[in-house]
Write a structure and sequence with these properties.
about 325 residues, 14 strands, alpha+beta, two-stranded antiparallel sheet, 10-stranded antiparallel beta sheet, Glucose Permease (Domain IIA), 2 helices
Length: about 325
Amino acid sequence: MKWMSKRFTFVVIPDANQSVQRYSVSGLTIVLIPALIILLAVCSALFIVLFSGQAGNLKEAKHQLSLSESGYEEQLKEREDTIAALEADVTALSAQAKHVETKMSEIAELELQLKEIAGIQESEVRISSGGVTVEEGGQGGEELLLPEDLNDALAAETLQELSSMALQMDEMKPSLEATKEALLKHQRILEITPTIWPADSRKITSTFGVRRDPFTGRAAVHSGLDLGGSRGDPIYAAADGTVTLSERTYPHGNNILIDHGRGIETRYLHLNKRLVEVGDKVKKGDLIGELGNTGRSTGPHLHYEVIVGGEHVDPMPYLQEDREEK
């Protein structure tokens, strides 16, 4: 290729008023310039082809990313809806639990009142939650994890159980109220029933019924119970009631009559001193007088009578307990 080593001259003829310009280039330069232009054209074409392919891939990737984002938003919304439903269930469970707790407190208070009325001491046995006492010791390490799809069923089941418990407690409360009323009524009956000894002495000097009269020696009906003691010993009301008589007469001496209601009365004769007056309200065990020897009496003692429906009865069956210290 000898012509490539040769030089070629190009003549440029401008306007007539300007000089002619000559350019001298080698044959190699003439070959390289077109080759370079062709190479640039080929590279541009390849770049365009490659860029078009990458643009398509980028568009597809953006589309896939958009779909994934939409799917994640749906999943997130479902999660938020599930959480909201669970929160609503938890709120309902909390309200139900408070309702049950309130009813349990009412029943516990009612039970305490019943125990106080009946005089029952608090048991020392403690029951833990669920009725089972948990003690320290060996324990297993297995745990059962509930799947998420059981949450709704568990919440619904718990709500149903709590509602059932509340209904049962609603049914129990009237029964306990009735029991309380019955106990109060029974307690009131006990309060107005002469069940305690009217004196500290347990020395019986004469029983109820027919006996030999200590003054005449003849058989006579003794309408009460005589309790021996010392002059000035305390005498107590055998039950709650109202004093209807407080006087000194013969042969009864200083004597007191108490009306306990329900047709029951008690009378206390031969007192050394009377400490209550007509119209006074007395409680079981209240001090009402002193043991004495007034009226028709052979020595210091209390003549105690129980009268039911206007008839004198034997006081012994009524004497069931000692006076409680106040």
